[in-house]
Protein: Geranylgeranyl diphosphate reductase, chloroplastic
Organism: Camellia sinensis
Amino acid sequence: MASLALKTFVGLRYYTADHHRHHPTSLSKPTTTHKRLHIIAGKSSPKITGRNLRVAVVGGGPAGGAAAETLAKGGIETYLIERKLDNCKPCGGAIPLCMVGEFDLPLDIIDRRVTKMKMISPSNVAVDIGQTLKPHEYIGMVRREILDSYLRDRAASSGAAVINGLFLKMDKPKTSDEPYVLHYTGYDSKTGGAGERRKLEVDAVIGADGANSRVAKSIEAGDYEYAIAFQERIKIPDEKMQYYENLAEMYVGDDVSPDFYGWVFPKCDHVAVGTGTVTHKGDIKKFQTATRHRARDKILGGRIIRVEAHPIPEHPRPRRIADRVALVGDAAGYVTKCSGEGIYFAAKSGRMCAEAIVEGSENGKRMVEEGDLRKYLEKWDKMYWPTYKVLDVLQKVFYRSNPAREAFVEMCADKYVQKMTFDSYLYKKVAPGNPLEDLKLAVNTIGSLVRANALRREMEKMSV
Ligand SMILES: Cc1cc2nc3c(=O)[nH]c(=O)nc-3n(C[C@H](O)[C@H](O)[C@H](O)COP(=O)(O)OP(=O)(O)OC[C@H]3O[C@@H](n4cnc5c(N)ncnc54)[C@H](O)[C@@H]3O)c2cc1C
């Protein structure tokens, strides 16, 4: 069953034709000279004269950076509004290998290439799960302040105007060709530290402003259930750091989280130790202490250099498009359950939404309408809905009790499971299975779960 589920863990591999170089941020007015996405189509929406379509992207994380770059390259007058240009998003920073290729990420922005992963059970049984990786395969570990500013800079060098501003609200148009008026506080050398209230008129808006999205509120997109994730960056002695050089750890158990996992991820000169939960948010610090405790021998002598926490969406918002406004990334709710992965999906959704706008507007020459933006949504749901569903099921089956988690870790020792899991994670595509191995795995999985249930019943009896 798990194998079938893993095989449904789909996504498509996609490569950009262009190869970019790293350029410094430009704060100049958007230019439309970098047109590499060319659309030829026939459409009836009104032509725009004397200028190109204007789009504001609110939020400069992976979703916003990727969206702004694609828009600018596609001939759109693009504005990227980010409240904090040195923002350091609380995040584990693990990215799949395919993201490096699809988004042409230079290797020097990747702190560590993880090739070994330990999955550690409630009773501290550790299983190595990177054994099937090929020599060139790895999980990338990035610091978000580095990744996000790289993507924003690249959007700027493609022609987007990056505005250092806090988006406040927007006035919606009354007719199909009136603009949206965005209100924001601008921070730049002219305003000093205080900021200045400003307005920006645009034809369409992409909300890439994360889990607490104000754009989502503006379009009454509705709420989602969320997890709270907590993380400490810990500087550990050099000899301890050697152990984590290319190794990440995942801890499961009631102590570290009732419904998620605890992690130790290696960064440039420190480790990130964290955990998350949806069901027991008030106990998050207790779970964090337990995660640190489980890793205690390996991080002994460490010094906490940063403490961070942030919500993680659990599912998409009820509404992701309204008129000429679309939500992407965490603002839309695109984090997978079970793994808590959202960086790749944020960048990918930002790019896909921008492509739909470029296409719908014929490279910025025509006005867009809701139907153009909906194309992004249809494509997205078709590509990724099964992935979200499968991970949802896996989380419900394997994270529900300590015996089930022991079964899960036991199952992870199987090389076939490792290969299927890594292929799905690293490439976001269907991993071709082997019928005989599938059958073997199904039998083993059922065996593990039966043992897990028997163990749980025994434990319940003991606690009566
Ligand atoms: C502790 C933790 C660990 C995680 N670990 C991983 C991991 O290892 N791998 C993984 O893939 N995912 C991980 N995630 C999830 C991942 O961080 C998110 O899915 C991802 O950051 C979403 O990107 P985004 O661009 O949609 O939003 P964000 O990264 O949240 O970016 C939103 C941007 O908008 C800006 N902004 C917000 N409001 C405004 C406003 N009003 N005006 C202007 N700008 C605004 C913010 O400053 C920010 O830069 C983790 C999350 C947490 C909390």
DSSP finds 14 helices and 18 strands in the chain.
